[in-house]
Amino acid sequence: MTGLTMTVQDARQRLEHERNSRLTQLRAVEDGAALADEELSKAQAAAIRRVLTEISAAEERLADGSYGACQDCGTIIPVERLEILPYVRCCVSCQQRAL
After folding, report:
1. Are the C-beta atoms of 71 and 90 separated by less than 8 Å?
2. Domain 8-98: which topology?
3. How far apart are CA 96 and CA 90, in angstroms?
4. What is the rounded CA–CA span in Å between residue 45 and residue 59?
5. What residue segments make up the domains of the chain, in order of their start?
6. Cα(20)–Cα(90) distance, rounded to whole angstroms?
7. How many other C-beta atoms lie within 10 A of the C-beta of residue 55?
8. SS3 letters for the chain?
């Protein structure tokens, strides 16, 4: 990560905030599962768990120094994208190609 991108500390704080938000969402979904549609609750919980996995992977990239680089093409992911989705693996171009 260069000085033109977010600092390691900024990235850690954003990832921690994302993790805490997702854990809160997961607890709410699990607590309300008995009151809601069971299939919908399971799908929501699974989606939240996938994001938590992505957050953990981003923390690993932060630790090994590869955070902020697209895992497909190697270009630097714009800081604006990382501010919105701090756990993102790819640049917009590569993500669009994957869809």
Report:
1. yes
2. Four Helix Bundle (Hemerythrin (Met), subunit A) (1.20.120)
3. 9
4. 21
5. 8-98
6. 23
7. 21
8. CCCCCCCHHHHHHHHHHHHHHHHHHHHHHHHHCCCCCHHHHHHHHHHHHHHHHHHHHHHHHHHHCCCCECCCCCCECCHHHHHHCCCCCCCHHHHHHHC
Q: What is the tens place of the pLDDT at every residue in 43-72?
A: 999 999 999 999 999 999 999 999 999 999
Report which residue type is found at 65: G
Q: Tokens in use for 68?
A: 């902020």
Task: Give this prediction's pTM.
Answer: 0.82
Q: What gap in Å lies between CA 17 and CA 45, rounded to an integer?
A: 18
